[in-house]
TrEMBL record:
Residues 106-304 form the ATP-grasp domain. InterPro entries: ATP-dep_AA_Ligase (IPR052032), ATP-grasp (IPR011761), ATP_grasp_subdomain_1 (IPR013815), Dala_Dala_lig_C (IPR011095), PreATP-grasp_dom_sf (IPR016185). It holds the Pfam family Dala_Dala_lig_C. Keywords: ATP-binding, Cell wall biogenesis/degradation, Ligase, Nucleotide-binding. GO terms for biological process: cell wall organization. This is Biotin carboxylase. GO terms for molecular function: ATP binding; D-alanine-D-alanine ligase activity; metal ion binding. PANTHER family: ATP-GRASP ENZYME FSQD (PTHR43585:SF2), FUMIPYRROLE BIOSYNTHESIS PROTEIN C (PTHR43585). It comes from the Bacteria.
Length: 402
């Protein structure tokens, strides 16, 4: 029986745990709590802090695990460390740092010759102020390590008090307390390209790439996943060539990685970031719905060198014939939640609703991807219907507030 070690048992790890059990593996989890929802499904629980890489390494040695995995970005460097130490399937610590730390990722892009904005590491507020003086506005102040667009502030004009506040927020939200400043790259539209790639045995699978529509109120936060990908063959090839160059330059060898990118007004592909984990908010399920490919099953099985699913990949895929959209509902105002408004003309396309708030609870203005009031799945009958509604969906769905 294969043994797999999973770091964490919270909601983000549930798919990994359930898929491992489905495949018949012995599942061991490191999680310092006793209450996370995944714990009731595992075979063995070590109540330890998985951020302590030496503790995790010793557990992996004692248990003689066949693989280690997580879906929590903050711990992916520890996963890589254990893989290197024990010769397990995975990536080097250096490769994960190259893409997981935003300042190092920009340096990588510049080093290998792909488009990237001007960027500077800053360790004090004074350095941030000086760096911004030497850049073209607007700029972004960002944590070097974080996810879900947390701690990012756009600075449109030189306002020293705002810069100081933004630096403090980024440093607070950064897992390594480091901050970076970079010039803002204008988005020519609110439609970007997002999704997951999968890397193994020198291959990159592209089944998980789709369009993402952003909100004008929070353009840096992913809002609506839209499949199939609406893009010319020429631009799709540019994506494949550029991302493959980054993968090679970073030294990535295995895993599922969430990616965000868009073409600039000068038609250059700007890869905003590559996250060292699966996409959140139901992305793996969304990918399987339109491609037939179960990325989670592939990730878990190949992690322990089980090729049973990999060997039937071509049979799992099917031609795209669904026009799917997964929409995260955000609020532009603070208030008391009173349910969702859904226009009558779009109700027939709704195939799933997940509300994150109960009526009477306080809703905040959207700041990052964790602020979704609800998530709604749609299936349209035609491309024309999808184009009509998906790219202006906030006109048809929004939270009702008191």
């Amino acid at each position: 029986m294969k043994k797999i070690l999973i770091l964490g048992a919270a909601n983000d790890q549930l798919l990994l745990i359930s898929k491992s059990k489905e495949l018949g593996y012995y599942v061991i989890v490191c999680d310092r709590t006793t209450t996370n929802p995944g714990l009731k499904y595992v075979d063995k629980h070590y109540q330890v802090d998985y951020m302590d890489r030496e503790v995790v390494l010793q557990i992996a040695k004692v248990e003689e695990v066949d693989g280690i995995i997580s879906n929590s970005e903050v711990v992916m460097q520890n996963v890589a460390y254990v893989c290197e130490e024990l010769g397990l399937r995975g990536n080097t610590l250096e490769s994960i740092r190259n893409i997981g730390e935003k300042n190092l990722f920009r340096k990588l892009q510049n080093r290998i010759g792909v488009f990237a904005p001007k960027q500077t590491d800053v360790d004090t507020m004074e350095n941030a102020i000086q760096a911004i003086k030497e850049m073209s506005l607007p700029v972004l102040i960002k944590p070097c390590r974080n996810s879900a667009s947390r701690g990012i502030t756009k600075i449109d004009s030189f306002d020293e008090s705002l810069i100081r506040k933004s630096f403090e927020n980024s440093a607070r939200d950064s897992w390594n307390k480091k901050v970076t400043v970079e010039e803002f790259v204008e988005m020519p539209s609110l439609t970007v390209i997002e999704g997951d790639i999968f890397i193994y045995d020198g291959k990159i699978l592209w089944d998980g790439i789709f369009n993402d529509q952003r909100s004008s109120g929070a353009p840096m936060v992913p809002m609506s996943d839209i499949s199939p990908l609406h893009l010319s063959s020429e631009k799709k090839n540019v994506i494949k060539d550029t991302v493959a160059k980054i993968v090679k330059g970073a030294g990535l060898e295995f895993g599922q990685f969430n990616i965000e990118m868009y073409f600039t007004k000068d038609n250059q592909l700007f890869v905003i970031e590559i996250n060292t984990r699966q996409g959140g908010i139901g992305v793996p399920k969304f990918i399987e719905q339109y491609s037939g490919l179960d990325y989670t099953k592939l990730l878990v099985s190949l992690c322990v060198n089980d090729y049973s699913y990999c060997n039937v990949l071509d049979e799992c895929r099917y031609p795209m014939f669904k026009y799917l959209t997964r929409h995260s509902v955000f609020s532009r105002d603070e208030g008391i939640y009173d349910g969702l408004y859904i226009a009558e003309e779009i109700k027939d396309f709704v195939c799933g609703i997940e509300e994150n708030f109960n009526k009477g609870e306080k809703v905040l203005i959207c700041e990052d991807g964790t602020d979704a009031v609800a998530r709604i799945d749609f299936e349209f009958h035609t491309l024309e219907e999808q184009n009509k509604y998906a790219y202006s969906i906030e006109n048809y769905i929004y939270p009702k507030l008191k």
